[in-house]
Amino acid sequence: MSHRPRSGLAAVSTALLAMSRHLEVRDVLKTIVASARELLDAEYAALGVPDDHGGFAQFVVDGVSDDQWKAIGPLPRQHGILAAMLRDRTPQRLTDVRQDPRFEGWPASHPDMSDFLGLPVRDGDETLAALFLANKRCPRPGGGCGFTEEDEELLGILAQHAAIALTNARLHERSRELTIAEERSRLAHELHDAVSQKLFSLRLTAQAAAALVDRDPARAKDELQQVTALAAEAAEELRAAVVELRPAALDEDGLVHTLRTQIHVLDRAHSARVTFGSFSVRALPAAQEEALLRVAQEALHNALRHSGADRVDVTLARRDPGVVLSVTDNGTGFDPRAVRRAGRHLGLVSMRDRAGGVGGRLSVRSAPGRGTTIEMEVPGG
Length: 381
Known about the structure:
Elements: H1 6-20, H2 25-39, E1 42-50, E2 56-62, H3 66-72, H4 80-88, E3 92-94, E4 116-123, E5 126-136, H5 149-212, H6 217-244, H7 248-269, E6 273-279, H8 286-306, E7 311-319, E8 322-329, H9 336-341, H10 348-357, E9 361-366, E10 372-379
Parallel strand pairs: 6-7
Antiparallel strand pairs: 1-2, 1-5, 3-4, 4-5, 7-8, 8-10, 9-10
Helix pairs in contact: 1-2, 1-5, 2-5, 5-6, 7-8, 8-10
């Protein structure tokens, strides 16, 4: 690296500093990709975080517009050169990726790529991601473009620091999750103590009123007024607790990111494939976002625990004049009417209550052997 211009070293320093400034995983991924593309003067850059199902849990690109990315379609699978990087854990530097025997083509809307440089981002024995660049923009003296051995060395340095930044971001998110869980536990204990005391007083006062109603109606009336006041205080305690127990991730990250994160965790934790898609959804009022999240959680719980499904798809999409949440599984299904007659609700009553509480509506489509779709629509968005 001694013959590289000082501007190159400055660019490396700038890239490493940029990565160290972020603590959210998604922000770190975006910074890694943008830094790599700028550092090596490439037209395109991408980074994929592999999942356990032959695909990518996250895939971040730089140099491709939003419209191009939507036109390309679903996330790529682990095949061809990407699979080689993840499997062999070795750098891949190619003059023309299209001529490589492992090349398997790309979708019609995918930009054309020729020279290619990619390598795995590793933390010890664990491969965290695959990072690659395409179409170097600096021409060689003899004509044409291509990544050099020095480019590969620089990208390797960047990848080592990217692994550190990504690991730190994951630890930060895990720490935040634990902090949220601890805070919710603390609030639950406080709620239990406060409401238990109020309910105990309420019960004693009601008993006193019952004992006095025949021999001292005036005092009984006073006691009943106290019952009313205690009931109002208990209700206020509960309302305050509900506000405090609102998922912290919603306030910090919004509904779309929170759902995506939770569904990613469920996808890794269960044998069923769990997917999430979001389409043109803007921020909603806090009460609506929380209701949508709670309904999604309840519907996912039913699908993963009771339906026997091997695939569950969750979508959140704009549907004028509102937003609709859909949770669809390919499980055993059920007859909604028979469930109601048998007194089994599968959480449907609470889901309908949540929808109605924010001006929305809930619909359930299911039949034995045909899976289940739960839809919740709310106004706005």
